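Task: fold both queries, return tokens.
Query 1:
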Amino acid sequence: MSITEDEARKVAHLSRIAVDDAALPALARELNGILHFMEQLNEVDVEGVEPMTGVTPMRLKRREDVVTTGSMPDRILSNAPDAREGFFAVPKVME
């Protein structure tokens, strides 16, 4: 499969990325390189290989699920980038 400049323009538009017409050939080459790499990955025999979440087999640390009162607002709010009057302060999103 090969990506044309017109298809690269469409991908850029769908991705909401502004790309100058002069940069479209380079973008098309990059996309073609990505597709070529994906085709190579499809050729790898993975029969009998179990899926994994990381490259090293390890068990995640777990803690016991204990119900608490949660009465530590000062400790919780100490992690917030901005806290006011005992609450998380966030930017206003609506006028």
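Query 1 returned. Query 2:
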Amino acid sequence: MSGFYDYSVTKRDGSSLSMEEFRGKVVLVVNTATGCGFTPQYKDLESIYEEFHDKGLEILDIPCNQFAGQTPGTDDEVHSFCTLKYNTQFDQMTKSDVNGDNALDLYKYLKSQKTFEGFGKGPKALMMSAMLKKIDPDYKNNAEIKWNFTKFLVDRNGNVVSRFEPTEDMKAVREAVEKLI
């Protein structure tokens, strides 16, 4: 049986990054976009990174263009956007698919560990639910990534402990990270 440390992703320079390099660290894996209503979450992600990186947190930023084409541009353009607009210190990987036939194996694994459990409550949750019903009437019954900025939290032992939909309050993400640090 495979575990988190058995997977790799591709860095912007084309080299491979093994999850083994994160052994003993807390990892937040996020599929991101530069032109999405949730893109301002980069500010919160950077704040969490600054607060907890020296204590063992890594953020694995995987840009994805599968949701309404909201990640245009090259990998270097995505990186420039993130560093110039949000001062991100964590790197962005190469743009990758998180759903479908070409989905990263890492994402297939993450989704097998933590399935979709809903968008929660509030206006953003209602908006996402209404939009997804039009795209996929059965969206509630599969583990697929629903939109940009879905986050998976992995503990220091490689266990996928939480999945946060993009509508989740970033304070809840911060609190979950803090508990593992």
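Both queries returned. Flag for query 2: Strands lie at 8-10, 16-18, 26-32, 57-63, 151-154, 160-164.
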